Amino acid sequence: MKTIVVGNGILGQLTALRVAQAGTPVTMIGDPERAGSATLAAAAMLAAFGEIDAGVLASDAGRMKLEIGISATREWGPLAAELGVPLHTGTFVLDAGGLDDTVRFDALVAALVEYEEPHALVKPAQVPGYAPLRPARRALRLVREGWIDPRAVVAALDTALAAAGVERIAGSAARVLGAGAIELADGRVIEGTHCLLANGARLTSLLTASALPLRVPVVLYGVGSTIEVASASTHTACLRGRGTYLAPHADRIVLGATNVVVAEPVDDAGAAAKILDTAATHLDHHLADAQVLRVTTGWRPTTADGYPLIGATSVPGLVIASGTRRDGFHLAPVIAEHLARLLHGERGDPRFRPFSPEREVQSPPR
Ligand SMILES: Cc1cc2nc3c(=O)[nH]c(=O)nc-3n(C[C@H](O)[C@H](O)[C@H](O)COP(=O)(O)OP(=O)(O)OC[C@H]3O[C@@H](n4cnc5c(N)ncnc54)[C@H](O)[C@@H]3O)c2cc1C
Predict the structure, then answer these.
(1) Which atom of ligand 1 is nearest to the CA of 258?
(2) What single-letter DSSP state applies at residue 137?
(3) pLDDT tier at 232, thresholds 50, 70, 90
(4) CA atoms of 337 and 252, how far apart (whole Å)
């Protein structure tokens, strides 16, 4: 038995680690530059409830995704400790007062109450570091939701993969010949017995080149950026406002994000100015003049209904993980456990049933 993992984002990395830790040899294929990596662009907020949209709990898929998210929040503590990366908790969600925001905020409060998630409604003026040009109407604190440094997680996972004996191939998969054979762009063929395709927003282009007997919904590129700025004032909590958020680290603040959903990747022109402007308006006016240290653009793997594609396919031994859009970093520990079980021929986590990679997708993005 030997597993091939295509893709070196957090889903490929963490699944490869879990499979190798269970004693199965793993070969992971990925570009060391990680072009378009959503994982490196992520603010890495670890949010189950913070990601809730109005109406989501009316569907089984929406409920399952929230429940997977709640499990992921529990699993991040031990995972961060295993990787030796500090985890921060304490998130404030602001209600800017527009119709969409208010409906979303009410849906969030209802879900927190229904799932008995610890939270507290607070006055916006009491939110630490909150100094927007346009103050919010309401605010609440999510006690358990937090954030982590994505680059530190990726680096720690690379170290753990080496320690677990995972073979790394620097390159790009050009075609999937079957679950047991991947042809690289340079013509080499990598052989195994099982295969995970975890190449993010590039899934559709790889499947199109592969001519497998699979009907997998199209994955689009949700092109988006975060920026890192020098600390303009002291922030200790993650703040989430209208189309903007802020995640503080010891030496910098991560601000996000832009999003344009397209069939082929495009440049995210002007991202830094847009992000700074929205963050200054809705979170902290000091950020208007903040020094930009880095802009990172990644491709959120995005399906038409906004739900992920996770699980086994009708090609025996071939497993897919994509379409995680805006919260795949947070869901990664639960997704990786599920995928590792499937790759070992075991039954997976039944909560992933609505996200089968060969399901029908009809609705427009949520
Ligand atoms: C701006 C932004 C902010 C985000 N913020 C958050 C957040 O706060 N919290 C959260 O939970 N999620 C967030 N997300 C979403 C999260 O980043 C993704 O859901 C998650 O990282 C997806 O991981 P992945 O491993 O599937 O994909 P990726 O990280 O995109 O990894 C795929 C990897 O596969 C490689 N690859 C592509 N094609 C091939 C090929 N043919 N052969 C070999 N390798 C290949 C790529 O180089 C890449 O490194 C954000 C995303 C973006 C863009």
Answers:
(1) 1
(2) S
(3) low
(4) 32
Domain ranges of the chain: 87-145+220-302
HSE-up of residue 109 (Cα within 13 Å, Cβ side)? 13
Q: How far apart are CA 210 and CA 220, in angstroms?
A: 18
Nearest CA to ligand 1 atom 46: 34
pLDDT tens digits, residue range 16-40? Answer: 999 999 999 999 999 999 999 999 9
Q: What is the pLDDT of residues 186-216, one digit of tens each?
A: 999 999 999 999 999 999 999 999 989 999 9
- Who lines ligand 1 at CB under 6 A? 6-12, 29-31, 34-39, 41-45, 172-173, 198-200, 202, 206, 224-226, 256-257, 298, 300-301, 322, 324-330
Which residues touch 293 (CB under 8 Å, ≥6 apart)?
Answer: 227, 228, 229, 230, 252
CA distance 294 to 61: 36
Q: Which ligand 1 atom minimizes the distance to the CA of 223?
A: 53
Amino acid 296 reads T
In the block, tokens 């997680």 appear at 153
Alpha-carbon gap, residue 366 to 249, rounded angstroms: 30
Point out the ligand 1 atom lying closest to the alpha carbon of residue 299. Answer: 53
Question: Residues 6 or more apart from 125 whose CB is under 8 A from it?
Answer: 135
For a ligand 1 pocket test, name from 17, 28, 167, 199 the mutation site with the most ligand atoms within 8 angstroms of its C-beta: 199
87-145+220-302, which class in CATH? alpha beta
pLDDT category at 363 given cuts 50, 70, 90 is low
